[in-house]
Amino acid sequence: MKNLCLAVFLITVLASCNNKKESSTTPAENMVKNNDQIEEKLKSTDFDTIIDDKQVNLYWIKSDSIKAAFTNYGGRLVGLWVPDRNGNLIDVVVGMGSVEGFVNSTEPYFGATIGRVGNRIAKGKFKIQDEEFNIPLNNGENSLHGGTKGFQDVVWNAEKVGDKKVIFRYRSPDGEEGFPGNLDVQVTYSVTDDRSLIMQYTAETDKMTPVNLTNHAFFNLNGEGSGRILDHKVKIYADEFTPVDSGLIPTGNFFNVEGTPFDFRQFHTIGERIEQDNEQLEYGKGYDHNFVLNQTKVGDMNHAATVIGDDSGVKMDVFTQEPGIQFYSGNFMEGKNEFKSGATDEFRTAFALETQHFPDAPNQPDFPSIMLSAGEQYSTESVYQFSLEGKPNL
Q1: Cα–Cα dist 51/191, whole Å
Q2: Any residues with CB less than 8 A from the CB of 224 and at least 6 apart, and which?
Q3: Residue 149: closest CA among 185, 116, 182
Q4: Helix (H) or strand (E) holding 113
Q5: What is the DSSP letter of 151?
Q6: DSSP for 135-152, written as a single string
Q7: What is the C-alpha separation between 17 and 20, in angstroms, rounded?
Q8: What is the pTM of this model?
Q9: Annotated active-site positions, please?
Q10: Structure confidence by residue, pLDDT tens digits, 8-32
Protein backbone atom coordinates (compact mmCIF):
# COMPACT_ATOMS: atom_id res chain seq x y z
CA MET A 1 0.00 0.00 0.00
CA LYS A 2 2.84 2.37 0.87
CA ASN A 3 4.51 1.61 -2.48
CA LEU A 4 1.24 2.31 -4.30
CA CYS A 5 0.84 5.64 -2.52
CA LEU A 6 4.44 6.55 -3.35
CA ALA A 7 3.85 5.68 -7.02
CA VAL A 8 0.71 7.80 -7.17
CA PHE A 9 2.57 10.68 -5.52
CA LEU A 10 5.45 10.49 -8.01
CA ILE A 11 3.07 10.36 -10.98
CA THR A 12 1.23 13.41 -9.64
CA VAL A 13 4.48 15.34 -9.19
CA LEU A 14 5.69 14.42 -12.67
CA ALA A 15 2.37 15.42 -14.20
CA SER A 16 2.52 18.71 -12.35
CA CYS A 17 6.05 19.38 -13.63
CA ASN A 18 5.00 18.55 -17.17
CA ASN A 19 2.03 20.91 -16.89
CA LYS A 20 4.30 23.69 -15.68
CA LYS A 21 6.62 23.17 -18.60
CA GLU A 22 3.73 23.08 -21.07
CA SER A 23 2.38 26.36 -19.74
CA SER A 24 5.64 28.08 -20.71
CA THR A 25 5.47 26.85 -24.30
CA THR A 26 2.92 27.30 -27.02
CA PRO A 27 -0.46 26.01 -25.73
CA ALA A 28 -1.55 22.87 -27.60
CA GLU A 29 -4.84 24.46 -28.62
CA ASN A 30 -2.91 27.17 -30.49
CA MET A 31 -0.92 24.67 -32.59
CA VAL A 32 -2.15 23.46 -35.94
CA LYS A 33 -0.76 21.07 -38.51
CA ASN A 34 -2.07 22.65 -41.69
CA ASN A 35 -3.49 25.82 -43.22
CA ASP A 36 -7.09 24.65 -43.23
CA GLN A 37 -7.18 24.35 -39.43
CA ILE A 38 -6.12 27.98 -39.04
CA GLU A 39 -9.22 29.36 -40.75
CA GLU A 40 -11.38 27.23 -38.48
CA LYS A 41 -9.97 29.14 -35.49
CA LEU A 42 -10.23 32.68 -36.94
CA LYS A 43 -13.65 33.40 -38.43
CA SER A 44 -14.13 35.84 -41.30
CA THR A 45 -17.65 36.49 -40.04
CA ASP A 46 -16.17 38.12 -36.93
CA PHE A 47 -14.63 40.81 -39.15
CA ASP A 48 -17.61 41.37 -41.47
CA THR A 49 -18.98 44.75 -40.36
CA ILE A 50 -19.35 48.43 -41.28
CA ILE A 51 -17.18 51.15 -39.70
CA ASP A 52 -17.39 54.81 -40.80
CA ASP A 53 -19.74 53.69 -43.60
CA LYS A 54 -17.05 51.40 -45.02
CA GLN A 55 -17.00 47.62 -45.28
CA VAL A 56 -14.52 45.78 -43.05
CA ASN A 57 -13.35 42.26 -43.88
CA LEU A 58 -10.71 39.66 -43.07
CA TYR A 59 -8.15 38.79 -45.75
CA TRP A 60 -5.93 35.70 -45.96
CA ILE A 61 -2.66 35.38 -47.85
CA LYS A 62 -0.45 32.30 -47.85
CA SER A 63 2.44 30.41 -49.39
CA ASP A 64 3.37 26.78 -48.83
CA SER A 65 4.94 27.46 -45.44
CA ILE A 66 3.56 30.74 -44.05
CA LYS A 67 0.06 32.16 -43.67
CA ALA A 68 -1.13 35.61 -42.64
CA ALA A 69 -4.49 37.18 -41.82
CA PHE A 70 -5.19 40.89 -42.27
CA THR A 71 -8.12 43.22 -41.79
CA ASN A 72 -8.62 46.52 -43.60
CA TYR A 73 -9.58 48.10 -40.27
CA GLY A 74 -6.25 49.78 -39.61
CA GLY A 75 -4.51 47.92 -42.47
CA ARG A 76 -3.81 45.44 -39.73
CA LEU A 77 -1.91 42.15 -39.44
CA VAL A 78 -4.19 39.93 -37.33
CA GLY A 79 -2.10 36.75 -37.17
CA LEU A 80 0.94 35.12 -38.75
CA TRP A 81 1.51 31.35 -38.77
CA VAL A 82 4.96 29.82 -39.32
CA PRO A 83 6.42 26.35 -38.60
CA ASP A 84 8.13 25.69 -35.28
CA ARG A 85 10.90 23.14 -34.68
CA ASN A 86 8.30 20.38 -34.26
CA GLY A 87 6.58 21.08 -37.55
CA ASN A 88 3.56 22.73 -35.97
CA LEU A 89 2.25 25.99 -37.39
CA ILE A 90 2.25 28.56 -34.58
CA ASP A 91 0.83 32.07 -34.55
CA VAL A 92 3.74 34.41 -33.83
CA VAL A 93 1.77 37.69 -34.03
CA VAL A 94 -0.60 38.51 -31.18
CA GLY A 95 -3.97 40.05 -32.03
CA MET A 96 -7.70 39.95 -31.51
CA GLY A 97 -10.16 37.42 -32.84
CA SER A 98 -12.66 39.98 -34.10
CA VAL A 99 -12.79 43.52 -35.39
CA GLU A 100 -14.75 44.43 -32.27
CA GLY A 101 -11.78 43.28 -30.21
CA PHE A 102 -9.49 45.68 -32.06
CA VAL A 103 -11.95 48.59 -31.89
CA ASN A 104 -12.36 48.21 -28.12
CA SER A 105 -8.75 47.37 -27.27
CA THR A 106 -6.98 49.60 -24.76
CA GLU A 107 -3.87 49.08 -26.95
CA PRO A 108 -4.85 50.53 -30.34
CA TYR A 109 -1.78 49.53 -32.34
CA PHE A 110 -1.76 45.70 -32.41
CA GLY A 111 -0.65 44.76 -35.94
CA ALA A 112 -1.66 48.10 -37.45
CA THR A 113 -0.23 50.14 -40.29
CA ILE A 114 1.01 53.31 -38.60
CA GLY A 115 0.93 56.85 -40.02
CA ARG A 116 1.17 59.55 -41.06
CA VAL A 117 4.08 59.70 -38.67
CA GLY A 118 5.11 56.64 -36.73
CA ASN A 119 6.52 57.19 -33.25
CA ARG A 120 6.48 60.46 -31.28
CA ILE A 121 6.36 64.16 -32.13
CA ALA A 122 7.35 66.41 -29.22
CA LYS A 123 4.39 68.39 -27.90
CA GLY A 124 2.56 67.57 -31.16
CA LYS A 125 4.23 70.52 -32.91
CA PHE A 126 6.44 70.96 -35.94
CA LYS A 127 7.12 73.67 -38.54
CA ILE A 128 7.23 73.63 -42.32
CA GLN A 129 8.71 76.81 -43.80
CA ASP A 130 7.94 78.75 -40.59
CA GLU A 131 4.30 77.60 -40.51
CA GLU A 132 3.49 75.70 -37.32
CA PHE A 133 1.30 72.60 -37.32
CA ASN A 134 -0.32 71.01 -34.30
CA ILE A 135 -1.09 67.29 -33.94
CA PRO A 136 -3.43 66.05 -31.18
CA LEU A 137 -1.67 65.00 -28.00
CA ASN A 138 -2.34 61.35 -27.18
CA ASN A 139 0.78 60.32 -25.27
CA GLY A 140 1.16 62.60 -22.30
CA GLU A 141 2.27 65.97 -23.63
CA ASN A 142 3.32 64.45 -26.96
CA SER A 143 1.76 63.01 -30.10
CA LEU A 144 2.23 59.28 -30.85
CA HIS A 145 1.72 57.33 -34.11
CA GLY A 146 -0.17 60.00 -36.02
CA GLY A 147 -2.41 61.51 -33.36
CA THR A 148 -5.74 60.62 -31.79
CA LYS A 149 -7.10 58.89 -34.90
CA GLY A 150 -4.12 57.65 -36.81
CA PHE A 151 -4.07 55.14 -39.64
CA GLN A 152 -4.73 52.32 -37.16
CA ASP A 153 -8.33 53.56 -36.71
CA VAL A 154 -9.36 54.09 -40.33
CA VAL A 155 -10.84 51.64 -42.83
CA TRP A 156 -8.55 51.12 -45.80
CA ASN A 157 -9.59 50.11 -49.30
CA ALA A 158 -8.37 46.55 -49.84
CA GLU A 159 -7.48 44.49 -52.88
CA LYS A 160 -6.35 40.88 -52.67
CA VAL A 161 -4.03 39.91 -55.53
CA GLY A 162 -3.76 36.15 -55.95
CA ASP A 163 -3.01 33.99 -52.92
CA LYS A 164 0.10 35.79 -51.72
CA LYS A 165 -0.62 39.53 -51.74
CA VAL A 166 -3.02 42.09 -50.31
CA ILE A 167 -2.90 45.82 -51.07
CA PHE A 168 -4.30 48.51 -48.77
CA ARG A 169 -4.95 52.07 -49.97
CA TYR A 170 -5.99 55.15 -48.04
CA ARG A 171 -6.31 58.86 -48.80
CA SER A 172 -5.54 60.95 -45.75
CA PRO A 173 -7.23 64.31 -46.43
CA ASP A 174 -5.58 67.67 -46.00
CA GLY A 175 -5.78 68.66 -42.34
CA GLU A 176 -6.50 65.18 -40.98
CA GLU A 177 -5.07 65.06 -37.44
CA GLY A 178 -3.50 68.45 -38.20
CA PHE A 179 -1.21 67.27 -41.01
CA PRO A 180 -0.98 69.33 -44.20
CA GLY A 181 -1.75 68.02 -47.69
CA ASN A 182 -3.78 65.21 -49.17
CA LEU A 183 -1.67 62.07 -48.76
CA ASP A 184 -2.33 58.99 -50.91
CA VAL A 185 -0.88 55.92 -49.23
CA GLN A 186 -0.49 52.37 -50.52
CA VAL A 187 0.81 49.46 -48.46
CA THR A 188 1.38 46.06 -50.06
CA TYR A 189 1.77 43.03 -47.83
CA SER A 190 2.93 39.79 -49.44
CA VAL A 191 4.26 36.39 -48.38
CA THR A 192 6.87 34.31 -50.17
CA ASP A 193 7.91 30.67 -50.29
CA ASP A 194 11.03 31.45 -48.22
CA ARG A 195 8.78 32.34 -45.26
CA SER A 196 9.02 36.11 -45.65
CA LEU A 197 6.41 38.75 -44.98
CA ILE A 198 7.23 41.72 -47.22
CA MET A 199 5.89 45.22 -46.49
CA GLN A 200 6.08 47.81 -49.28
CA TYR A 201 4.98 51.38 -48.57
CA THR A 202 4.43 54.21 -51.05
CA ALA A 203 2.88 57.65 -50.61
CA GLU A 204 2.35 60.89 -52.55
CA THR A 205 1.19 64.32 -51.40
CA ASP A 206 0.07 67.63 -52.86
CA LYS A 207 1.68 69.66 -50.03
CA MET A 208 4.86 69.15 -48.08
CA THR A 209 4.12 66.89 -45.11
CA PRO A 210 6.02 64.56 -42.78
CA VAL A 211 5.66 60.83 -43.52
CA ASN A 212 7.08 57.91 -41.52
CA LEU A 213 5.13 54.70 -42.14
CA THR A 214 5.59 51.38 -40.36
CA ASN A 215 3.77 48.30 -39.12
CA HIS A 216 3.23 47.74 -35.40
CA ALA A 217 3.03 43.96 -35.18
CA PHE A 218 3.53 42.58 -31.67
CA PHE A 219 5.45 39.27 -31.76
CA ASN A 220 5.85 36.26 -29.51
CA LEU A 221 7.98 33.72 -31.38
CA ASN A 222 6.90 30.94 -29.03
CA GLY A 223 3.32 31.58 -30.13
CA GLU A 224 0.50 33.79 -28.97
CA GLY A 225 -0.46 32.97 -25.38
CA SER A 226 2.83 31.22 -24.54
CA GLY A 227 3.91 33.61 -21.78
CA ARG A 228 6.59 36.28 -21.47
CA ILE A 229 9.18 37.00 -24.14
CA LEU A 230 12.07 37.66 -21.73
CA ASP A 231 14.00 34.53 -22.82
CA HIS A 232 13.84 35.38 -26.53
CA LYS A 233 17.33 36.01 -27.88
CA VAL A 234 17.82 39.33 -29.71
CA LYS A 235 20.53 40.73 -31.96
CA ILE A 236 20.25 44.31 -33.29
CA TYR A 237 22.65 45.56 -35.95
CA ALA A 238 23.24 48.98 -34.39
CA ASP A 239 26.24 50.67 -32.82
CA GLU A 240 24.18 53.60 -31.51
CA PHE A 241 20.72 54.42 -30.22
CA THR A 242 18.91 57.72 -29.76
CA PRO A 243 18.49 58.43 -26.02
CA VAL A 244 15.22 59.92 -24.79
CA ASP A 245 13.91 62.15 -22.05
CA SER A 246 11.27 61.09 -19.53
CA GLY A 247 8.55 61.62 -22.14
CA LEU A 248 10.38 59.27 -24.56
CA ILE A 249 11.28 62.15 -26.89
CA PRO A 250 14.83 61.92 -28.33
CA THR A 251 17.32 64.35 -26.89
CA GLY A 252 18.89 64.75 -30.33
CA ASN A 253 22.06 62.93 -29.27
CA PHE A 254 23.44 59.58 -30.39
CA PHE A 255 24.73 57.22 -27.67
CA ASN A 256 27.15 54.40 -28.36
CA VAL A 257 25.68 51.08 -27.19
CA GLU A 258 29.00 49.69 -25.96
CA GLY A 259 28.96 48.92 -22.26
CA THR A 260 25.23 49.55 -21.95
CA PRO A 261 22.12 47.33 -21.76
CA PHE A 262 21.41 48.54 -25.31
CA ASP A 263 24.33 46.62 -26.81
CA PHE A 264 22.63 43.86 -28.80
CA ARG A 265 25.44 43.51 -31.35
CA GLN A 266 25.77 39.97 -30.00
CA PHE A 267 22.79 37.89 -28.88
CA HIS A 268 21.31 38.67 -25.48
CA THR A 269 17.96 37.66 -24.07
CA ILE A 270 15.42 40.42 -23.68
CA GLY A 271 15.26 39.90 -19.94
CA GLU A 272 19.00 39.61 -19.29
CA ARG A 273 19.58 43.32 -18.55
CA ILE A 274 16.11 44.84 -18.65
CA GLU A 275 16.00 45.40 -14.87
CA GLN A 276 19.41 47.05 -14.64
CA ASP A 277 19.72 50.41 -12.93
CA ASN A 278 19.77 52.55 -16.06
CA GLU A 279 18.07 55.91 -16.64
CA GLN A 280 17.06 55.06 -20.20
CA LEU A 281 15.47 51.76 -19.14
CA GLU A 282 13.71 53.62 -16.34
CA TYR A 283 12.27 56.16 -18.78
CA GLY A 284 10.99 53.44 -21.12
CA LYS A 285 9.99 51.02 -18.33
CA GLY A 286 12.20 48.67 -20.33
CA TYR A 287 13.20 48.87 -23.98
CA ASP A 288 11.24 51.42 -26.01
CA HIS A 289 14.02 53.02 -28.02
CA ASN A 290 15.15 53.74 -31.55
CA PHE A 291 18.32 52.00 -32.69
CA VAL A 292 20.51 53.57 -35.40
CA LEU A 293 21.21 50.79 -37.89
CA ASN A 294 24.89 50.35 -38.77
CA GLN A 295 24.41 49.61 -42.50
CA THR A 296 24.99 45.86 -42.25
CA LYS A 297 23.79 45.11 -45.76
CA VAL A 298 21.99 42.11 -47.21
CA GLY A 299 21.48 43.05 -50.84
CA ASP A 300 20.18 46.63 -50.87
CA MET A 301 18.60 46.36 -47.42
CA ASN A 302 19.84 46.89 -43.88
CA HIS A 303 19.91 43.78 -41.74
CA ALA A 304 18.17 45.34 -38.74
CA ALA A 305 17.61 42.56 -36.20
CA THR A 306 17.42 38.84 -35.50
CA VAL A 307 15.21 37.31 -32.80
CA ILE A 308 14.94 33.65 -31.74
CA GLY A 309 12.09 32.11 -29.77
CA ASP A 310 13.61 30.08 -26.95
CA ASP A 311 10.95 27.32 -26.91
CA SER A 312 9.85 27.21 -30.54
CA GLY A 313 13.21 27.63 -32.28
CA VAL A 314 11.53 30.13 -34.61
CA LYS A 315 14.04 32.67 -35.91
CA MET A 316 12.96 36.04 -37.29
CA ASP A 317 15.28 38.28 -39.31
CA VAL A 318 14.26 41.87 -39.98
CA PHE A 319 15.49 43.66 -43.13
CA THR A 320 14.66 47.23 -44.07
CA GLN A 321 15.50 50.23 -46.23
CA GLU A 322 14.85 52.44 -43.19
CA PRO A 323 17.70 53.89 -41.09
CA GLY A 324 16.28 52.88 -37.72
CA ILE A 325 14.26 50.35 -35.77
CA GLN A 326 12.22 50.80 -32.60
CA PHE A 327 12.62 47.94 -30.14
CA TYR A 328 9.71 47.74 -27.70
CA SER A 329 9.59 45.06 -25.00
CA GLY A 330 5.88 45.14 -24.18
CA ASN A 331 6.32 47.34 -21.11
CA PHE A 332 2.82 48.84 -21.15
CA MET A 333 0.88 45.60 -21.66
CA GLU A 334 -1.54 45.27 -18.74
CA GLY A 335 -3.64 42.15 -19.30
CA LYS A 336 -6.75 44.15 -20.24
CA ASN A 337 -7.31 42.73 -23.74
CA GLU A 338 -8.11 39.21 -24.91
CA PHE A 339 -6.26 37.75 -27.88
CA LYS A 340 -7.71 35.35 -30.45
CA SER A 341 -6.16 32.43 -28.52
CA GLY A 342 -8.06 33.38 -25.36
CA ALA A 343 -4.88 34.61 -23.64
CA THR A 344 -4.69 38.20 -22.43
CA ASP A 345 -2.02 40.80 -23.15
CA GLU A 346 -0.08 40.36 -19.95
CA PHE A 347 3.05 42.38 -19.16
CA ARG A 348 5.86 41.68 -21.63
CA THR A 349 4.17 38.79 -23.42
CA ALA A 350 5.02 40.32 -26.82
CA PHE A 351 7.61 42.62 -28.37
CA ALA A 352 7.71 44.93 -31.38
CA LEU A 353 10.42 45.81 -33.89
CA GLU A 354 9.18 48.77 -35.92
CA THR A 355 11.30 49.76 -38.93
CA GLN A 356 11.33 53.55 -39.20
CA HIS A 357 12.95 56.92 -39.53
CA PHE A 358 13.83 58.36 -36.15
CA PRO A 359 11.27 59.67 -33.61
CA ASP A 360 10.50 63.40 -33.56
CA ALA A 361 12.41 63.82 -36.84
CA PRO A 362 10.58 67.06 -37.83
CA ASN A 363 12.04 68.76 -34.75
CA GLN A 364 15.51 67.18 -34.81
CA PRO A 365 17.85 68.83 -37.36
CA ASP A 366 20.51 66.11 -37.02
CA PHE A 367 18.08 63.28 -37.84
CA PRO A 368 17.29 62.13 -41.40
CA SER A 369 14.36 64.15 -42.74
CA ILE A 370 10.88 62.66 -43.12
CA MET A 371 9.48 65.55 -45.15
CA LEU A 372 7.76 64.58 -48.39
CA SER A 373 7.27 67.28 -51.01
CA ALA A 374 4.57 67.54 -53.66
CA GLY A 375 5.62 65.66 -56.78
CA GLU A 376 7.91 63.28 -54.85
CA GLN A 377 7.14 59.67 -54.00
CA TYR A 378 7.75 58.12 -50.61
CA SER A 379 8.85 54.51 -51.08
CA THR A 380 10.30 52.05 -48.60
CA GLU A 381 10.34 48.31 -47.98
CA SER A 382 10.81 46.11 -44.92
CA VAL A 383 10.83 42.33 -44.50
CA TYR A 384 10.24 39.89 -41.65
CA GLN A 385 11.82 36.56 -42.67
CA PHE A 386 11.30 33.37 -40.67
CA SER A 387 13.38 30.22 -40.36
CA LEU A 388 14.40 27.80 -37.61
CA GLU A 389 17.42 28.23 -35.36
CA GLY A 390 20.35 26.37 -36.86
CA LYS A 391 18.48 25.49 -40.06
CA PRO A 392 18.35 27.22 -43.44
CA ASN A 393 15.07 28.42 -44.93
CA LEU A 394 13.26 25.74 -46.90
Answers
A1: 27
A2: 30, 79, 90, 91, 92, 93, 94, 95, 339, 340, 341, 343
A3: 116
A4: strand 113-114
A5: G
A6: ----BTTBEETTSTT-GG
A7: 5
A8: 0.91
A9: 216, 354
A10: 333 333 333 343 333 344 555 555 5
